[in-house]
């Protein structure tokens, strides 16, 4: 089954590479726009699917490193997925107040 998934993944990657080879720059840009729109639309569902797998594997006491290897991502990404973080680090909300900010005076 893993080989089958790898083959499907390779087919998608090959298609994306072929898209980059479209000679007409306007047609190429239009194709890129369509792919980017599709990815943006599907990303939340894909993240949810991946998170469910990570949570299920963690419930089975599988290590972070093993999960990272299984789903072909980094250890840190698996840990972030488990915590419910998604997207770039700069977009994550702060969970602790800034120490630099002035605390209101109780006077």
Topology:
Blueprint: H1 2-20, H2 25-59, H3 64-71, H4 75-83
Structural commentary:
The protein has one domain (9-85). 66% of the residues lie in helices and 0% in strands. The protein is built from four helices and no strands.
- Largest sheet, if any? none
Which runs of at least 5 residues are low in confidence (pLDDT < 50)? Answer: none
SS element count, helices? 4
**Oligomer kind:** single chain
H and E order:
HHHH
Please give the radius of gyration in angstroms.
20 Å
**What form results from the Cα inertia axes?**
elongated
Proportion of β residues?
Answer: under 5%
Looking at this protein, list some descriptive labels.
single chain; 107 residues; mainly alpha
Short description:
With 107 residues, the protein is mainly α. Helix content is 66%, strand content 0%. The protein has one domain.
